[in-house]
Amino acid sequence: MSTGASRDTSRFGKYQLIDRIAVGGMAEIFLAHQVDGEGLETPVVIKRIRPHLSKHASFVKMFLNEARLAAQLNHPNIVQIHDLGKIGESYFIAMEYIFGRDMRRIIPKAEALGIPFPMVYALKIASDVCAGLHYAHRKVDLYGNPLNIVHRDVTPENIFVAFDGMVKVLDFGIAKATNQVEETRSGELKGKISYMSPEQCQGKVVDCRSDIFSVGVALYEWLTGFKLFTGESEVAVMRSITEGKIYAPSYFKADIPEPVEAILMKALEKDRDRRYQTAAEMRAAIDAFLNAYEFTPTQLHLSNFLRQLFLDEMQAEQGRLVQQTSGLEEVLELEEAKSDPSTLPPVALVPAPPPAPVGPPALREKRNLSERLLSVPLPTEQLAALEAVAQRNGVSVNKMVAELLAAWLKYR
């Protein structure tokens, strides 16, 4: 899917299109806003089916059936569908607008800036993805009958992290429920192949465990920096998934903790009966590790990390939206503390939220300084040593840490 934005300010039913932000084989994606009866403007994303597909009755029926199922999902970690139907000759879905970036862009951005993506952040994101998936997997209709929803396309492109740190699973639009009116043709494959489960590649009936495998693939790549399944053709990739050996992540990155490696290898079992049986089980395993780890990330940590990676893009996007719509300023307004780039610490240093005030004022001041420097607060004695070295060299602690980090990144 191309993502080149182009201006398109036409009216589409009750929606005002602002920009076309992506074009794919199935649909065009627009940034838009909806104005209610009181004049309140709400940003939304419109997915409009391409005209040539609107003429195919079977595709339209499948699209609307699955969109209606997805519209029943209401969870903090799932992008909400607000509306769907037909305007003129075009079928569409109106979705929640997420002011953030998908993982397909976040990881490369960090790499381009020379910033290691923290392991605990990757685990936190995977945990939140599992929370959203488990809700969808367990969703029932009004009569208590399971909808048997499976996402079937859990990829970095469909995992968003908002600039407020909230993780969202996007696009249940190709999800398949076994009770939908029109079944997908036997053996038909959907989704991004390199993130498919073995059973999905083989055209078998899939269940929630297929999504668990896909989360495992994405998490493996985030933690190791290596793509798990590759090949010169789609057939070769699928053969790698179904028959290839999965190396332990420590083979590529020796410092991955054993409990994390165990989580990954269980999620990636080719035999689905040996995987986690629910996304909630996988989430529980991840959270158990994070809770026992020396640093447990929060939504605020993710927010601060993303804001520093994408500060310029955030401000540009905010400005573009505010320019096009009169009522989005409040919706997309950046926090006042983040509005001035000069107040931010160096981009490679991720600030943590302030702790509860404990200890004497001098000690609290030292701890606060360490938390402004790093995502993992430094022990007071280590911070004192840093201050002493910085003082001897006549530089600030901030500058010294930045120089040390730059040198480490250069020669690691």
Automatic annotation (TrEMBL):
Residues 351-360 have a biased composition (Pro residues). Residues 337-363 are annotated as: Disordered. InterPro entries: Kinase-like_dom_sf (IPR011009), Prot_kinase_dom (IPR000719), Tyr_kinase_AS (IPR008266). The keyword Secreted does not apply. GO terms for molecular function: ATP binding; protein serine/threonine kinase activity. Keywords: ATP-binding, Kinase, Nucleotide-binding, Serine/threonine-protein kinase, Transferase. Pfam families: Pkinase. Residues 15-290 form the Protein kinase domain. It comes from the Bacteria. The keyword Nuclease does not apply. Transmembrane segments: none annotated. PANTHER family: MITOGEN-ACTIVATED PROTEIN KINASE KINASE KINASE 20-RELATED (PTHR43289), SERINE_THREONINE-PROTEIN KINASE NEKL-3 (PTHR43289:SF6). This is Serine/threonine protein kinase. It comes from Stigmatella aurantiaca.
